[in-house]
Amino acid sequence: MQIGFKLFAENYSPTELVRQAVEAERAGFDFVEISDHFHPWLPEHEHSPFAWSVLAAIAASTERIGLATGVTCPTIRYHPAIIAQAAATTQILSGGRFTLGVGSGERLNEHVVGQGWPEVRDRHQLLREALEIIRLLWQGGYHSYRGEFLTIEDARVFDLPDTLPDIVVAIGGPQAARLAADLGDGIFTTDPDASLIEAFEQAGGSGPRYTEVPLAWATDEQAAAESAHRMFRFGLGSWRVNSELPNPAHFDAATQFITPDSMREVFACGPDVERHLEVARQFSDAGFDRLALISAGPDVDGFMRFFTDELRPRLSELST
Q1: In this structure, how many other beta carbons lie within 10 angstroms of the beta carbon of residue 66?
Q2: Is residue 258 part of a domain?
Q3: Under a CB-based contact definition with an 8 Å cutoff, are residues 37 and 73 in contact?
Q4: Could you tell me if residue 196 is inside a domain?
Q5: Is there a domain that residue 320 lies in?
Q6: Which CDD domains does this UniProt record tie to the protein (predicted)?
Q7: Are the beta carbons of 70 and 212 closer than 8 angstroms?
Q8: How far, in Å, CA of 166 to CA of 207, rounded?
Q9: 106 belongs to the catalytic site
């Protein structure tokens, strides 16, 4: 099992995210995972930097820790040829430490380029074509491709790493699980749902199983819950809704009935290491082996110390 740290790009500046990645390496995390959005989720969030620039800076500032996108949508805001090039370059700059996490996206980020927001079936087909293009370009040489939605013409990625990055695919049901099995090297999800892993494996898939563990450390439980509410209340909504809302004001309206007490039901809030282990264990018991820990509390450096001194020694108790 590997333990990662979630770089929550919507809440921190680019330079702060790089600093946190350096601290995560020092604290003993195995990897960092960064969200790749154009907009933040909520009005309280005041950031959303270009993830690929942040990844390049992290690659140059660290030596050991893995890097991953969690996740990139390579279909509308980005063309997959650009992601094929960006991921290959990031793999080279990081010395082979990069994992490309991909998904079918949210309206929040993709509608900004004025291409509309497709229905679910078309989003899955777009992602399939995007992954076929990325795989094709990673073979080297010039290639053309014409799909139902996406096209490349006489394209080549010139700088390819000796070892290609793994591609992990965000899944939420059987259709995405089949896509991940066909074209991915692993899966990514935010739910402790063993049936998603089962669907992936039944479709012939194998490889790392990434997830995010909702934690909010603080010396005071109420302060932790309030911080989690400010930063992550959007996460308690249904993904069928979250994927369709266009801007932070809509997420603010959709989450108006979620309270700090609601956050306690999902997030480990406060200083109790046993509660943090209890939440993490849901994911390890479901079969996930790449746990990216969310720090939704008000003190990132305090969480790093908590991880090093108390939580990390206990995580060996979790099954994989």
Answers
A1: 19
A2: yes
A3: no
A4: yes
A5: no
A6: Tetrahydromethanopterin_reductase
A7: yes
A8: 9
A9: yes
- What would the pLDDT profile of 154-177 be if each residue is shown by its tens digit? 999 999 999 999 999 999 999 999
* Structural domain for 46, as ranges: 2-315
Q: Extract the tokens encoding 23.
A: 């601290």
The domain tally of the chain equals 1
Three-state DSSP state, 312: helix
| pLDDT tens-digit series, residues 178-224 | 999 999 999 999 999 999 999 999 999 999 999 999 999 999 999 99
Cβ burial, residue 83 (10 Å; 0-12/13-18/19+): buried
Distance CA 66, CA 246 (A): 32
The residue with tokens 């994927």 is 243
Q: What are 79's strand-pairing partners?
A: none
- Active-site position among 10, 106, 110, 212: 106
Kindly report the CATH number assigned to the domain that includes residue 32: 3.20.20.30
Q: Which residue has the tokens 């279909």?
A: 75
DSSP code per residue over 191-227 = S--HHHHHHHHHTT--S-EEEEEEEE--SSHHHHHHH
Using CA atoms, how far residue 45 sits from 48, 66, 231, 297, in Å, is: 8, 26, 7, 14
Distance between CA atoms of residues 228 and 240, nearest Å: 22
CB atoms within 10 A of CB 17: 23
Q: Strand 209-216 vs strand 290-295: parallel, antiparallel, or unpaired?
A: parallel
Domain contains 153: yes
Q: Which of 10, 33, 37, 111 is catalytic?
A: 37
What is the model's pLDDT at position 303?
98
Separation between Cα atoms, residue 206 and residue 222, nearest integer Å: 40
Question: What phi, psi does 314 have (nearest 5°)?
Answer: -90, -20
Which of the residues in the chain have pLDDT under 50? none
